[in-house]
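Box 3.1 A note on notation
Throughout this textbook, protein chains are presented in two layers. The first layer is the amino acid sequence; the second is a token string describing backbone geometry. Keep the layers aligned when reading.
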Amino acid sequence: MTATRYYEDLETGETFESGTKRVTKDEALAFARRYDPQHFHADEEAARDSVFGEVVASGIHTMAMWRQLDHQIAADIAWICGVAWDDVRFPRAVRPGDTLRARATCPDKRLSRKDPERGAVVYCYELFNQRDEILFECVSTNLVSRRR
């Protein structure tokens, strides 16, 4: 079992990367049909006539897959909660057959002004495909427990 990382253990400038996850067409279709049934996510035939030319994963699905991968590198952090997501972008679509990996970089952290038992930690998150193209990115501010 991995030791818990608290606010004091997190360093600005540190970067972590996840393992990989391969995206299947069946997974993308099933997710879209349940949660985001736009034609280019949920209908193979209609997707061929879209700007993508094929089924692509929805943004919601993309974020869910990123979160699964990020959990590999951040599950041991003493999270309290997230408080903001800024600059959310999807520069490229996630396509069936893509192999994804996540990266988290901590550019900043500060002690809480309201509660001495926690700190605010900022992470820049990125999701890449097998060609190192960025598919999803955001900046997230999170509350993390301090060591007691």
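The CA atoms of residues 23 and 96 lie 5 Å apart. The radius of gyration is 17 Å.
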